[in-house]
Design brief:
mainly beta; OB fold (Dihydrolipoamide Acetyltransferase, E2P); 5-stranded mixed beta barrel
C-alpha cells in the first residue's frame, strides 16, 4: 500500500504553531494548489489543502514560511474525525508533511531562485499529541539539535543553528545544472541520439 503526496503551492495565511500537552510542536497551514485546467470562464481554479507539520519541521515552517510564499510539501494523506460541540461527526482530510521545500528565498527581490529543504519525521501514529520518536534530533535535519535557534554562520538565509542536514540549493545565483537552458543552442548530431 502506498500513501504519498507531493504538492506545490502558495500559503493562504501565515502558519499557526502550537504545542501539544506533551510539548511537541505542531504547525498548521493551508496550501493553495492550482488545478491543471481552466474553468468555463477561462480562470484557473485552486484547491486549498490543509498541511500539518510536527516537531523541528513545525518550528522551522512557523519561523520561515509566510502567507503567499511558494512551497513544496511531501507527505501523506490522513483522515481523522471528531465530534463537534453540536454532537455531529466531523471528518478532516489533511496532509501530514515530512518534507517541506521553500521554493523562494525570503527576499524575493534579491534574485537567484534559492531553495531550501527541511525534513522532519512525522513520528509514530501521526495523531495529534501522538508520541513516536520522529526525526527531530541529531544532525539529520537542517538546523540540527533540539531547538530552532537563530544562530548560524551569518548571511541572508542562515536558518537555525548548526548541522547541514537535508538542505538543498545554495548561495550561487548561477545555475550549475549542465542540462539547464541557458539560452544557447544545443549542438547534438543525430548519430548521438539513442533512437
Amino acid at each position: 500500500m502506498l500513501n504519498r503526496v507531493i504538492l506545490i503551492g502558495r500559503l493562504t495565511r501565515d502558519p499557526e504553531m502550537r504545542y501539544t500537552p506533551a510539548g511537541v510542536a505542531v504547525t498548521q497551514f493551508t496550501l493553495a494548489v492550482d488545478r491543471p485546467f481552466t474553468s468555463g470562464q477561462g480562470e484557473r481554479e485552486a484547491d486549498f489543502i490543509p498541511i500539518v507539520t510536527w516537531r523541528q519541521l513545525a518550528e522551522t515552517c512557523a519561523n520561515y514560511l509566510r502567507k503567499g510564499r511558494l512551497a513544496a510539501v511531501e507527505g501523506r494523506i490522513q483522515v481523522r474525525n471528531y465530534e463537534n460541540n453540536e454532537g455531529r461527526r466531523v471528518y478532516v482530510t489533511e496532509v501530514i508533511a515530512d518534507n517541506v521545500r521553500f521554493l523562494e528565498s525570503p527576499n524575493r527581490e534579491g534574485g537567484g531562485g534559492q531553495r531550501e529543504e527541511y525534513s522532519g519525521g512525522s513520528g509514530g501514529g501521526g495523531s495529534y499529541g501522538g508520541s513516536g520518536s520522529g526525526n527531530s534530533g541529531g544532525g539529520g535535519n537542517y538546523g540540527g539539535g533540539s531547538g530552532s535557534g537563530s544562530g548560524g554562520s551569518g548571511g541572508g538565509n542562515s536558518y537555525g543553528g548548526g548541522g547541514g542536514g537535508n538542505r538543498s540549493g545554495g548561495n550561487n545565483s548561477r545555475n550549475n545544472d549542465p542540462f539547464s537552458d541557458d539560452g544557447r543552442p544545443i549542438d547534438i548530431s543525430e548519430d548521438d541520439l539513442p533512437f
